[in-house]
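Q: Hi! First time doing this. I have a protein sequence and I read that you can turn it into a structure. Is that right? Here it is:
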Amino acid sequence: MKFIKRNWAINNAMPVFFIGFFLSITNDDGILKLLGFGIMIFSFYLWYLASKKEKKK
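A: Yes, that's right. Below is the predicted 3D structure, encoded as structure tokens:
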């Protein structure tokens, strides 16, 4: 069962980045800072997939 559809996640990479960005900035905890950083890295991967998708068409 898929919880997040792939096209939705690729099309909304910018909000995913800002969620990770604000998570990493606002929390002083080490775990949440790393989680926010990981979400930001994941959003860069989503942007990469979006760029590959545009070139295919």
